[in-house]
Amino acid sequence: MKPVFIDTGYFLALELSNDQNHHVAKKHWESLITNLPPLVTTSYVFDEVVTYFNSRGFHAKALQLGARS
């Protein structure tokens, strides 16, 4: 199975229910869960996601995501 690269936009769309792509990303994620391919990302993407939440007043969310690493 080919690895799937997860970028910043995808992570944000999954986490933010008011994101314009949230429903599409969530539906796609749910389809991946049943047969999860190897997931690939970078430390830069991770940093962008955590920084995004932290800089917008979602410090608890940034900590939650940071703890997953």
General description of the model:
The mean pLDDT is 90. The longest helix has 13 residues, at 43-55. This protein has one domain (4-67). 61% of the residues lie in helices and 6% in strands. It has helices at residues 8-15, 22-33, 43-55, 59-67; strands spanning 4-5, 39-40.
Helix and strand arrangement:
Elements: E1 4-5, H1 8-15, H2 22-33, E2 39-40, H3 43-55, H4 59-67
Parallel strand pairs: 1-2
Helix pairs in contact: 1-2, 3-4
In short:
The protein has 69 residues and is mainly α. It has four helices and two strands; from the N terminus they run βααβαα.
Number of strands: 2
User: How many domain units?
Assistant: 1
Question: For the terminal residues, how far apart are their CA atoms?
Answer: 23 Å
> What is the typical, i.e. mean, pLDDT?
90
The helical percent reads 55-70%
Query: What is the number of helical segments per DSSP (H or I, 4+ residues)?
Result: 4
Element string (H = helix, E = strand):
EHHEHH
Question: How are the strands ordered across the major sheet?
Answer: 1-2
Beta-strand percentage range: 5-15%
What is the structural class?
mainly alpha
Shape: globular
